[in-house]
Design brief:
The protein is mainly β and about 150 residues long. The chain is about 5% helix and about 45% strand. Residues about 125-135 have low confidence and may be disordered.
Length: about 150
């Protein structure tokens, strides 16, 4: 069976995220994101260049969760697709490109965080809290103090 793949990006949130509503009433997350750029030199070293910037959007429940969890400066990895768009504003044709993320998470190589493994509420079951669901025993937390961070 073939491995399913999609486009992905990594970068940092460059502006304060915005949460708006589409004409259809769906939640829409929007932020500018940046990507670091480097040039490899003949001696094998790397020279840091200016970052490049683009637009990041997410929709519906994923947009709402991202808005709650992401802030300017956060490093992320996202899966989705590049989308070219064009529209007319004040008689001017405006064209651009955005990355539409279907999934997004913090970049584990650059971010420290704790994982909450309690089950999410779904439309088919009642809200279950950790106290009500004793069958779920999360693994013990790993010590975070002075733990090495990947990528540094």
């Amino acid at each position: 069976m073939a491995i399913r793949t999609q486009q992905s990006i990594s970068g940092f949130i460059a502006t304060d995220p915005q949460l708006t509503t589409t004409e259809n009433g769906d939640a829409r997350f929007y932020a500018r994101f940046g990507q670091e750029n480097y040039r490899r030199e003949e001696d094998g070293s790397f020279t840091k260049l200016e970052p490049s910037f683009s637009n990041l959007v997410l929709y519906r429940a994923t947009a709402e969760r991202a808005y709650e969890r992401f802030a300017k400066g956060d490093n992320f990895v996202a899966e989705g697709y590049a989308h070219e768009y064009s529209y007319t504003r004040d008689g001017q044709q405006i064209e651009g490109e955005e990355f539409v993320a279907k999934k997004i998470g913090h970049d584990t190589a650059r971010t420290r965080y704790e994982v909450d493994r309690t089950p999410r509420r779904t439309a088919d079951r009642e809200n279950v809290t950790r106290e009500q669901n004793q069958a779920f025993d999360p693994p013990p937390a790993r010590p975070a103090a002075d733990a090495p961070v990947l990528g540094h």
